[in-house]
User: Fold these one by one.
Assistant:
Number 1:
Amino acid sequence: VQLVESGGGLVHPGGSLKLSCAVSGTSARNTLSWVRQAPGEELEWVSTINIRSNNTYYASSVKDRFTISRDAAKNTLYLQMNRLKPDATAVYYCSPGPSGRNRGQGTQVTVSS
């Protein structure tokens, strides 16, 4: 599976941003995930969607502020991020599983005033 993220940028604290991930090819997994890596930090799982059940899962740090979704017709995964905080500054990746393995090239999100 090939994954290409887009939609990152600079946003003020409290603002919103919507990331996209174009998915091509096939994967044996039933899930798609977003992970992120802040400067100097390890990769962190953010959210997962089960593409069969549409069940969604979130890290406690983003729950109720971030929404993962998928448009099957467009083969695109999304991450709507609201009420952004400076600690959300990171490179965001989509990946087949929650570990971040085989992730895309990433898109930079910077939350700063």
Note: The radius of gyration is 13 Å.
Number 2:
Amino acid sequence: VQLQASGGGLVQAGGSLTLSCLVSGFTLDYYAISWFRRAPGKELEGIACHKPTIRHTYYADSVKGRFTISRDNAKNTVYQQMTSLKSEDTAVYFCSAVGSYGQGTQVTVSS
């Protein structure tokens, strides 16, 4: 099982960014996919989780209404669209599935 997050970068506050998570080693269709982040000096925070079998998506209060998780099973890729970014969204973002975490991607929001 491998997961690789990408798409991070530097963006101004109020801007948008879309992260991608390419998965391999398992069939994406039926597995829950989650996004986590670790901000400087803070603990790992779970921010979104999509469970296709029950058609349910969870968002943490800190990102609800601003972040959207989606997936393209044909491309084995999960996305996280992030809008109205704030300086407190600065963190390393990770995707996770089947108990594995991929390498993170850095998102820096300048105020």
Note: The chain has a mean pLDDT of 94.
Number 3:
Amino acid sequence: QVQLVESGGGLVKPGGSLRLSCAASGFPFNRHWMYWVRQAPGKGLEWVSYITVNGNTYYADSVKGRFTISKDNAKNALYLEMNSLKSEDTAVYYCAKSSPTGIRGQGTQVTVSS
């Protein structure tokens, strides 16, 4: 069955960096668009970034220029490099298969606070 396992979250100060990882299994990873989405406390799900089968990348305006999505098809892994973090980036981050509301993992908490 499809399994997505996120990791790499934590507590970081404003301006800091984190690298999130998502280990995927149970489906042909290289044939699916993959998404990073997040949910801040008390808010709905927000798409952050996605990467197409061909490796084209797209970002929400709120993270453009600060976050970088990438993938390693050989490892069935998805990544999100997050730089210049802000308090408003605080959220649970999920990787999702095929669409922003697709199957996702359990999430990893990112807290940006001084």
Note: The chain is about 0% helix and 50% strand.
